[in-house]
């Protein structure tokens, strides 16, 4: 990185410093949009306007085309509409000879629900600052990274520097449930030589992640008034058998030989019982109970194989119960159909990111394997575009009082800016 520690680099860093309060305010504005599933439209239109007016980018808005995507191996089945929920793409188009390489910066703008909000000490949509932390749903995961990637390019532009390769800024929907937003943008042709995703991994480079599927299990009972509950069949009680089977399957997954990327992880493949719904009256024996769960599994395994195996496993478990044997559960899959991946850290993307990281952090870049999934899978698995995640430091993702360390956001903004100058090159 020595060759870019010069007046150009210092000028860009000065711009990051000068625009820092604006970046914090931008992040607060992002955090105040309750952009849960189905509600991403308003924040996406805000970002599109900002990219167009403040960064002078060419902006596109696309709606995922399910018919077009459904045959893709990375496609995940949704149960909702994409109307008024665009993916936003901003393009910096380099002029003349392109000396460097192009890059995609991609962040997801969808966030999970903060409920129950009563468990929070701060307004989940308040983007409250206390000391060097900002609190709010989605502030860490991953609106802080979105702010950093946008303001890194903004600083380069404000410093009057002309990059020699294209930069694509993407803010996508549905990273938290399908990844179809990211997939749709790539399928529309928005590609580059590498992709960097600012997930809040504490300024580490991502080299592996697990695969993920979602399963829904509907258990039937025999409803009745509670005065004859002894003659009825309570679907909630019967659903325990399926919960136990899911937990047993989790043990089974983790008892198998681990993928080398997770060899030192004690429990990489998690199954989460995320939703249970049943009943509508305390004095009525429920006739139906629905369980929804998330299942993690090893890289290198086809998600359909896990679905087939889990389906058979659950049915076999149900045969041990007299009622469920006669009335087997209905097992379906929706949402995540996500394959895991592992990539080699000995490649140019990590070399350049490592130099930029070390320039700012004064220590070598470290790497991690993630027991969740990210949109990086699409680039690495299906398009031969090297991709990793690298972002700020935060905590309580998907939990109460989610927060991001603002000092880390500023440092990551500078790291991204340094990466842009080295990866894309610039006109002298």
UniProtKB/TrEMBL annotation:
Cofactor: Zn(2+); Co(2+)
Molecular-function GO term, any one: metal ion binding
Domain Peptidase M20 dimerisation: 208-321
InterPro entries (UniProt xref): ArgE/DapE (IPR010182), Bact_exopeptidase_dim_dom (IPR036264), Peptidase_M20 (IPR002933), Peptidase_M20_dimer (IPR011650), Peptidase_M20A (IPR050072), YodQ-like (IPR033687)
SUPFAM superfamilies in the record: Bacterial exopeptidase dimerisation domain, Zn-dependent exopeptidases
Claim: Hydrolase is one of the keywords in the record: yes
Keyword Iron: no
Keywords for the protein's UniProt record, in alphabetical order: Cobalt, Hydrolase, Metal-binding, Zinc
Family annotation (Pfam families): M20_dimer, Peptidase_M20
Family statement drawn from the similarity comment of this UniProt entry: Belongs to the peptidase M20A family.
Descriptive protein name: ArgE/DapE family deacylase
Organism: Bacillus aerolatus
């Amino acid at each position: 990185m020595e060759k870019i520690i010069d007046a150009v680099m210092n000028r860009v860093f000065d711009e990051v410093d000068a625009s820092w309060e604006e970046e914090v305010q931008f992040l607060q504005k992002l955090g105040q949009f309750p952009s849960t599933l189905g509600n991403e439209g308003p924040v996406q239109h805000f970002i599109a306007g900002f990219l167009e007016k403040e960064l002078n980018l060419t902006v596109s808005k696309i709606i995922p085309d399910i018919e077009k995507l459904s045959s893709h191996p990375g496609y995940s089945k949704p149960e909702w509409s994409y109307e008024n929920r665009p993916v936003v793409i901003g393009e910096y188009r380099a002029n003349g000879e392109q000396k460097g390489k192009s890059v995609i910066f991609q962040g997801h703008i969808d966030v999970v629900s903060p409920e129950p909000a009563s468990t929070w000490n701060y307004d989940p949509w308040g983007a409250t600052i206390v000391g060097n932390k900002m609190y709010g749903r989605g502030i860490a995961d991953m609106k802080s990274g979105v702010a950093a990637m946008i303001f890194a390019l903004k600083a380069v532009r404000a410093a009057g520097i002309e990059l020699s390769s294209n930069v694509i800024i993407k803010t996508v929907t549905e990273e938290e449930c399908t990844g179809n937003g990211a997939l749709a943008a790539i399928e529309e042709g928005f590609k580059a030589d590498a992709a960097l995703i600012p997930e809040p991994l504490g300024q580490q480079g991502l080299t592996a992640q697990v695969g993920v599927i979602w399963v829904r299990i509907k258990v039937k009972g025999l409803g009745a008034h509670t005065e004859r509950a002894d003659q009825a069949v309570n679907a909630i009680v019967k659903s325990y058998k399926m919960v136990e089977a899911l937990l047993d399957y989790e043990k089974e997954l983790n008892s198998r030989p681990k993928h080398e990327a997770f060899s030192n992880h004690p429990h990489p493949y998690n199954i989460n019982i995320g939703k249970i719904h049943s009943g509508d009256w305390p004095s009525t024996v429920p006739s139906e109970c629905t369980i929804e769960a998330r299942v993690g599994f090893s890289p290198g395994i086809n998600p359909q194989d896990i679905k087939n195996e889990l389906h058979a496993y659950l049915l076999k478990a149900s045969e041990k119960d007299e009622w469920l044997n006669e009335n087997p559960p209905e097992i379906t899959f929706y949402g995540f159909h996500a394959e895991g991946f592992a990539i080699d850290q000995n490649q140019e993307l990590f070399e350049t990111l490592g130099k930029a990281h070390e320039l700012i952090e004064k220590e070598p870049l470290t790497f991690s394997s993630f027991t969740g999934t990210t949109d990086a899978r699409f680039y690495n698995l299906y398009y031969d575009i090297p991709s990793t995640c690298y972002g700020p430091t935060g905590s309580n993702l998907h939990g109460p009082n989610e927060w991001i360390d603002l000092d880390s956001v500023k440092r990551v903004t500078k790291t991204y800016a340094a990466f842009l100058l080295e990866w894309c090159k610039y006109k002298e």
